[in-house]
């Protein structure tokens, strides 16, 4: 399953290429009480259609802004997605996402 997942992720990242994209991120606790963070990428494909693709899900140790920022940076780097191409960000409204100094 891991190999299939990496192939799908690679295909999605290849499709995104160097176009601008938006991040949609949500975190939730699963049944085993572990925090999980889901990444969805929204972009316009070569045919000019809006695409929303589930890219990854990551276990996070906590949901502080600094931890979430580190994980977002890691996922973008891992998938070779340039942070300069982000044109929008969507979160689930968690209070630790907001803030000029301590927010994500």
Structural overview:
The structure is a single chain. This protein has 104 residues and is an alpha+beta fold. The protein has one domain (2-97). The protein is 28% helix and 34% strand. It has helices spanning 2-16, 65-78, and strands spanning 21-29, 35-44, 50-60, 86-90. A 4-stranded mixed β-sheet has the order 3-2-1-4.
Break the fold down into its secondary structure elements and pairings.
Layout lengths: L1 H15 L4 E9 L5 E10 L5 E11 L4 H14 L7 E5 L14
Parallel strand pairs: 1-4
Antiparallel strand pairs: 1-2, 2-3
By DSSP, the count of extended strands is 4
- How many strands, what sense, and barrel or not for the largest sheet? 4 strands, mixed
Give the spatial strand order of the biggest sheet: 3-2-1-4
Order of helical and strand elements: HEEEHE
- Average pLDDT for all residues: 84
- Structural class estimated from helices and strands: alpha+beta
* Intertermini distance: 31 Å
Number of domains: 1
Q: pLDDT below 50 for ≥5 consecutive residues: which ranges?
A: none
- Outline: globular
Radius of gyration over all CA atoms, rounded:
14 Å
Continuous helix count: 2
| Helicity, as a percent range | 25-40%
Q: Report the β-strand fraction as a percent range.
A: 25-35%
- Name the assembly state: single chain
């Amino acid at each position: 399953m891991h190999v299939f997942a990496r192939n799908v992720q690679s295909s999605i990242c290849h499709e995104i290429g160097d176009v601008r994209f938006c991040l949609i991120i949500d975190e939730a606790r699963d049944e085993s009480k572990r925090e999980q963070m889901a990444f969805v990428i929204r972009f316009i494909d070569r045919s000019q259609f809006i695409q929303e693709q589930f890219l990854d899900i990551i276990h996070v140790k906590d949901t502080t802004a600094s931890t979430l920022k580190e994980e977002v940076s890691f996922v973008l780097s891992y998938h070779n997605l340039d942070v300069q191409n982000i044109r929008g960000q969507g979160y689930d409204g968690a209070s630790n996402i907001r803030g000029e100094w301590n927010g994500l």
